[in-house]
Structures are given as C-alpha cells and as structure tokens.
Amino acid sequence: MKSAEQAAERTSPSELKTSAVRSYCRGTVPLTAKLEPWITNFCHGTALPALVQKYGSPLNLLNTEPFQRNVTALYDIAQSRDLDFDVYFARKANKCLAFVETAKTLGCGVDTASLEELQQVLQSQVPAEKIICTAAIKSEELLRLCIVSGTTIAIDNLDELMQTAILAGELNQRAAVAIRLSGFQHQGTKLPSRFGFDIEEIVPLLQDLQSESCNSLQHLNLSGIHFHLDGYSQVQRISAIQQLLPLIDELRAREFPIRFLDIGGGFPMCYLESKTEWETFWQTQRRALLGEHIPLTYRNHGLGLASVEGTLTGKPNCYPYYQNLVQADWFGEILSSASEAGTIADSLRTRNIQLRCEPGRSILDGCGFTVARVEFRKLQTNGDWLIGVSMNRTQCRTSSDDFLIDPLLIPILERSPLPRTPAGISGYLVGAYCTESELLSLRKLLFPHGVAIGDFIVFPNTAGYFMHFLESRSHQFPLARNVIFDAETNQCECDAIDA
Question: Could you confirm whether the keyword Lyase appears in this record (predicted)?
Fold first, then answer.
C-alpha cells in the first residue's frame, strides 16, 4: 500500500489549492463544483477581500478567457467538417459588455433580446450583419432600429411579420429577416413551443404573402430559417434539422434566398465533478421526500418533486448540472448524425448553407463567480444555523428552483469581531429580502470549520444566467457590480455596463 506521503507527492499544488478551497463548505450530500484555475486562485489568494471592500457585496467577478476557449472549440468542430458556420453569443445570458467586445474580437456574432441590448451592441460597433434580434416581444421602436441598422430579425409570428413589412415599406428599406419555426415531429410527437410558426403551415402562408395580389414581402429579405428548442436534447435538434433541410429546398425553389439555418442555443454544459454525486443526490432527495432519509433541503423542499400518498410526482425543476456530452462534443455529434446520403454536415455543405447557433450559458462556462460577505450566524431551535449573507436570491438564480452546486466558503483572514461558530455546524444560506422564502440555496450545507462574520461565500460558475437573469433591486438594494479580471495584466476593473 502506498503511503500518504507518496500520494501527497503526486498531488499538484493546484489540486492541493482546490482541495483547500473546498474544505470549508459542502452539501450534506455533496455536489462538488468544477473549478477553473483562475477561480481557485482568487479564492485562495488575498485579492478578494479588497475587491469586495471596494465594490460591495455581492460582487460578480468575470474573466473572458474561458469564453474565447469555448467559442473557438465550436468553430474548430465546424471547421473540421469544412462547414460554413458562425456563432452568435446569446447576450441575455450575461449583460457584461466585455463579452460583446470579446465576441467582436473573435469575429463571431451577438444575439440580442431587447432594444437596450441591441443599442448597446451597435454602440460597441459590432457589424449589423453579425447581429440577430430574437426578442420575445419586439416593439415598433425595436423593429425600426433593426431595419435601419440592418440587424437580422428572427420573426416569431404573423403580426410581427406584417408589422416588419409595413415598417420596412415606410422606411423604404429591405428588412433582413429569418423565420422562426417550431412544431417539429419527433418520435411520433409534435414538439410543443410558444415560439415560432408551425413548420407545416409556413409554406402556404409565405406563398399567400408572396402572391401578386398581396405582395406583402417585397420589403423583406427572407434569408434564414431559425429555431430554438427548449431543453438540451441532441436527438430533438437532429430531428428538427432533418425536417428543415427539405423545407429549405422548397423555399429556395419558391425564390426565397435562404442562406443560413440557425439552430438557436441550448448547448449543454456540466457544472459538477462527479456523475455519481449527482445521481446520489437525487436518489437521496427522493428518499427524503418519502420520509426515508433526513431532509436535504429547507423544510424538505421538493425541487420540483412532491410526495402524494407515498408516491413521488412531478419532475426536477432544476438545470441538469451534471451532463457528460457537452458543448463542442455535443455539437460535433449533431453534425456527424446521419442525414440523407451522408451526415448533417454533408447535407448543409451540399446546399451551400451556413449553419448558425446562439449559445449563451455553455460558452460562459468558467467565466465568472459571485461572492458575498457573511453578516450573521443564527442558531435555530431545531439545531440548524442560518447564515446571513449580503445578497439576495435573485443575484444567483434562474427560473429553476435552486443552485445545485456546493458554494465555497473563504474564511476571513483577519480576526473576526465575534468568535467563529463551532466547527461542524450545518444550516442554510439566507439572503437580504424580507420574506420567509429568502434562501440563497435550498440545500442544507455543512461547515466543517465553522463560520465567522466577514467570511466570504462564493457561488462558482455563475456567469451564464445566474448573475443577471433575475436580478432585482427590490428594497432599493443596488445591483451587484461586475468586475472583469484581465489575466494578462492581472488587473481588475468594472465592466462598462456599470459605468
């Protein structure tokens, strides 16, 4: 048997540093975060307290280097198949302008979802041909700006189509548009969506609008087909692409100059180190809801599941934090899937059509974390501790029930004004909103070395949606500042969005 000393000798300084950072907080059933080295270095170093002191709690710290790596990996996959391809960063996933600037530098595009997003991207001098607007609600002002600037509009419904045509006529310009489609057949079922025209209805509709008596499309340049599927299913996207290839042929035959197919976002990513931990968590959570295990969550919250007369109903309302085919590899398998006489990549290449996508979360993997200061510790009568943290739940939350990643606790370096809690306590992180439900994480957490006022709680890998998707200024709390770390200069400065 090898000695502990021999094992330690084989452990790199980076691994030792990561292990130390993780040692102060974990879930009662752990969900260990994947950590980028730059995040580990910040948590292990001395710069974080000064940054929180300067910019306030909570603070979002970001780095564009992983963004560049993640985007480049997608281009490399497409290039290996000799495919005309472009990435459009889904800006709604993170508001920081540093990522817009990085996208521009990389030569990729930006997907905008509001008038303000589009205005800021245009002000950043991203070329209009590298911008698409996919806003769920498009005001007249937004449509006008798209038309005037030359931004492509992803058209969702007939009202939007007709309003765009009317405005383009008034402006005497041709609007660049892509028709958004849905209603794809998959394994004998039509995939439901609130977005887009039904694929079975689009040709008759366009044919009517193209007729001489109507001629509603004369000011529209219909150059693309667009879709966005909910969830992260690879096979559903393959089905959608396979159904759109003959549609593209038919539209081109009817003199619509379709030159690109946009498959939207939903590229999966993995937040966790261990598949086993992920599976164990859900197995244990189900047992807890059935009364067979102590609760893992605050007041035995089901996270989408519920026990009804001893039977579990519902489904998890959380992101699938562990996935084992992600990002560029997931995308590559779509391109290599069978289609017609070859692969999907072959079918696209034969048609001389550009493939586009609009990832957000997945290309922000590793790009940021959120840090906040501990302000109080409170022992409940049931033995649980409440750890009060200077932030609110909207500052690290999406529309799902919880953030299922173990936070990190960074102990205060100087003496705390009050003693640390006892070692080995367990409890919950609570936030600043004055409601009973104001938990930053619903999972019960263990603190092997206790907690002190002034310690920092770090939520890792929050750049994709968690920081900004739901953030709120209720109670007049200021929004978190966004600070960009430049690895080349080792300097930090506020993102221009906070100027």
Answer: yes
